[in-house]
Write a structure and sequence with these properties.
The complex is a heterodimer of chains A (336) and B (280).
Chain A lengths: L16 H15 L3 E5 L3 H4 L3 H5 L4 E3 L4 H13 L3 E7 H7 L1 H9 L6 E5 L17 H6 L5 E3 L4 H13 L4 E4 L23 E4 L4 E5 L4 H13 L4 E5 L2 E3 L3 H11 L1 E9 L4 H12 L4 E7 L9 H7 L4 H13 L13
Parallel strand pairs in A: 1-2, 1-3, 3-4, 4-6, 5-6, 8-9, 8-11, 11-12
Antiparallel strand pairs in A: 5-10, 7-9
Chain B lengths: L4 H25 L4 H18 L14 E4 L5 H10 L40 H14 L6 E6 L6 H12 L5 E7 L8 H5 L4 H7 L3 E6 L3 H13 L5 E6 L22 H17 L1
Parallel strand pairs in B: 1-2, 2-3, 3-5, 4-5
Classes of the chains: A alpha/beta (336), B alpha/beta (280).
The structure holds thiamine diphosphate.
Thiamine diphosphate sits at the interface of chains B and A.
């Protein structure tokens, strides 16, 4: 088990992604004496406030002033502290993009960011509180590591791993009513940069990230009933990306669908496309997510459905991609 | 000009109606930013029912006065007022927050008639208001711009950039309110990040600032009239309010920032509103 997790979170089943990270972070506070937690009037909403109970002196609520939040974290990281910053993704990645770039990434400050309510997971709050751009923004920051855990267990493992990871890390989680994907904290291997293979398959691969992963697994099961063999990858780390796992999928299935609660431009699907294009190997890629539009208002699960990021939408996409008979007019042996 | 007794009574009655309806919507939609919606209501009722040139049937008329709820999470209260003015069919409010509804917690001007800017991310509204006010001046238009800020919202730097700019550009055709309910999400505003001395700060930034009871219509009306007469400085009305105003079990408690109501709580909330309206 990862360093720092010498206890089991039996309660994780009942805990949301954010609650569990609040718990984990608090435990880590005992191990990492230089760990400090910061937020901007969202101690309760992001659950980072849990840390304050045990470490009131190492907790800083700066009020609704997110730019100051990241500036302060940068200074703290420059001076021996290990700051963990939490606010909604829209404010961390968009409002503070320049502060994160210039104060954190550019100056190589070891700041860990836990961005909650990402994608469309804050359903009814609408676009101002959704964030379907953060993967793109954060991926473009030199030196930033970008992780989108699929459930509470993965979130816990990601937070622990981030402590020992050299450099800034952006962990993107949902509003936190996400269903669990894994059975327990140690029922899976978690390593930053290594995709988790959830299902083997030979016809098509679904690569999902964040809160869309459980739907991808469900879709694979539904497609299996139709006689299709669907491989599923949980690509929790968007950067550094797992080239090996993606290339294995390319070679085994030649058909890939990516699913992300994000704009399809420059998000996880685009990161996968980069890998495929650079390899010179042919592969069909269909990207599910928001098709360059601003999100509507609705319940978080309804939005997954509306944007075809749930099992139904993925099954539909599988059907479409499987119908393409591109292999007939291409000689796959001809590649460069 | 002092309010006539009949006019005062009408404003109070309207505010009660609006608050009742906010409770109803909060109940049907499963949750809303009820605390801050209650504190802002008297200010907004005074603006919409006494001052603003605004034709609900022509919400985009170029000559209309502009209103920006910079504390956009008060959208539930704004939507109810616009519904009561018949900008749209009130029945649509039953879908507030539901999938596919035009109304989310934060209103979008592209979807909701009568809204002038899509707010929700704090710290944007005042800058937008300044832009609208300068545009009026530049084009010799007579409309006035009103902006309502939260007090917690004032933690954010962008507000202070705007506050500086308003004085610099001598924006006097705009009236700004601070809904000073003294709470943000995590607790009392002064404990989370103090904003006092607020009046002095605005004054130091070149504004004319007055402090009033934000639930007293006479004071609100006086202050707005005074703001209209001001020709030198941007004008801010720091309105001391109570978060959850009118609902006894919510007043002054941060936990009602965003909340849902069950049937029983709804009944209690409505009863409290009516009781307090009689007494006050
Ligand atoms: C930039 C930004 N950061 C954080 C939030 C989340 N948020 C919504 S309301 C709120 C508290 C607002 O407090 P205040 O301005 O005092 O409003 P009120 O008490 O009148 O509801 C916060 C932090 C936000 N909407 N925008």
């Amino acid at each position: 088990m990862a360093k720092g997790l010498t206890w089991t979170i039996d309660d994780a089943d009942h805990m949301t992604q954010a609650e569990i990270y609040g718990e984990v972070l608090t435990k880590l506070g005992y191990e990492y004496k230089n760990l400090v937690a910061l937020t901007a009037d969202l101690a309760g909403s992001t659950k980072i406030g849990r840390f304050q109970k045990d470490f009131p002196d190492r907790f800083f609520n700066v009020g609704i002033a997110e730019m100051n939040l990241f500036g302060m974290a940068s200074g703290m990281a420059a001076s021996g502290l290990l700051p963990v910053v939490s606010t909604f993704a829209a404010f961390a990645a968009l409002r503070c993009a320049e502060h994160v770039r210039t104060d954190v990434c550019y100056q190589k400050r070891n700041v860990k960011i836990i961005a909650t309510h990402s994608g469309t997971s804050f359903g009814q709050a609408g676009t101002t509180h959704h964030c379907t751009e953060d993967l793109a923004v954060m991926r473009a920051m030199a030196g930033m590591t970008v992780i989108a855990p699929a459930d509470a267990y993965e979130t816990a493992r990601a937070v622990v791993a981030a402590m020992e990871w050299d450099g800034p890390v952006y962990i993107r989680i949902g509003r936190s009513f996400e269903p669990p994907l894994h059975k327990s904290m140690d029922s899976f291997d978690f390593e930053i940069g290594k995709a988790i293979k959830l299902r083997e398959g030979t016809d098509i691969t679904v690569i999902a990230t964040g809160r869309t992963v459980p739907g991808a697994v469900e879709a694979a099961e539904m497609a299996a009933n139709e006689g299709l063999s669907v491989k599923v990858l949980d690509l929790h780390t968007i950067k550094p990306i797992d080239v090996e796992a993606i290339m294995e999928a390319v070679m085994e299935t030649r058909r890939i669908i990516t699913v992300e609660d994000h704009n399809v431009y420059s998000g996880m699907g685009s990161a996968v496309a980069d890998v495929i294009a650079a390899s010179g190997k042919g592969c069909v890629l269909k990207k599910l997510g928001l098709q360059d539009e601003f999100s509507i208002v609705g319940y978080p699960d309804d939005l997954l459905h509306y944007y075809k990021m749930d099992a139904d939408g993925i099954v539909e996409a599988i059907g479409q991609v499987m119908k393409m008979d591109f292999e007939a007019d291409e000689d796959w042996e001809d590649e460069i | 000009m002092a309010l006539k007794p009949a006019e005062l009574k009408k404003l109070k009655q309207t505010a009660l109606r609006i608050r009742e309806q906010i409770v109803e919507v909060t109940y049907t939609c499963g949750g809303a930013h009820i605390g801050g919606a209650m504190s802002q209501t008297d200010i907004m009722v005074a603006l919409y029912y006494k001052f603003m040139k605004f034709d609900p049937k022509k919400p985009l008329l170029p000559t209309r006065d502009r209103f920006i709820l910079s504390k956009g999470h008060g959208g539930v209260g704004h939507a109810v007022i616009l519904g009561y003015l018949d900008c749209f069919d009130k029945k649509e409010l039953l879908d507030f927050n539901k999938t596919g509804s035009p109304f989310g917690m934060h209103l979008d001007w592209l979807k909701v008639k009568g809204v002038d800017a899509s707010t929700g991310s704090l710290g944007h509204g005042l800058s937008i208001g300044i832009g609208m006010a300068i545009a009026a001046r530049l084009q010799n238009k007579k409309y006035h711009t009103y902006v309502v800020l939260g007090d917690g919202e004032l933690h954010g730097g962008p507000n202070w950039e705007a506050i500086m700019a308003a004085a610099h550009f001598k924006v006097t055709n705009m009236t700004t309110f601070v809904d000073r309910n003294k709470l943000c999400i995590d607790g009392p505003t002064e404990e989370i990040m103090g904003v006092e001395p607020l009046k002095d700060k605005f004054e130091a930034f070149g504004w004319k600032a007055v402090e009033i009871d934000g639930h007293d219509f006479e004071q609100i009306v006086d202050a707005v009239e005074q703001s209209h007469k001001e020709t030198e400085k941007p004008f801010v009305i720091i309105a001391n309010t109570i978060k959850g105003k009118g609902i006894d079990f919510m007043e002054g408690l941060a936990k009602w920032h965003y909340a849902g109501l069950d049937e029983e709580m709804k009944k209690q909330a409505l009863a409290s509103l009516r009781r307090m309206n009689k007494n006050g």
